[in-house]
Amino acid sequence: MLSKFLFASAATVAALSGLANAQTNITENDCASSSEYSRCNRDVADKWSSCVRNCNGNGNCVVDCGCESHQKYINCMAESCWNQVYSCKYQLFVQQYFAICPSAQEPIPFWPPPDNAPNRCSCDLGKVTQTTLSSRNQQVKCMRAVTDKLTGDIGNIPDLSKLNDGLDIANRASDCACCGASASISASWDICPHTEPTLAGADMWGVFFPSDLPNLYTSLPNWAWSSCDATLQDTNCKDLGFTDTDKFYKPGDFPNNGTSTLYEVGGTVSAPPSGTVLTWSQASATYTVTATGYDRKAVASQSEYRATATGSDETFPVQTSDSGAAALRTGGLGAVVAGIVAVAML
Ligand SMILES: *[C@@H]1O[C@H](CO)[C@@H](O)[C@H](O)[C@H]1NC(C)=O
Ligand SMILES: *[C@@H]1O[C@H](CO)[C@@H](O)[C@H](O)[C@H]1NC(C)=O
Question: Residues of the signal sequence (predicted)?
Answer without folding.
Answer: 1-22
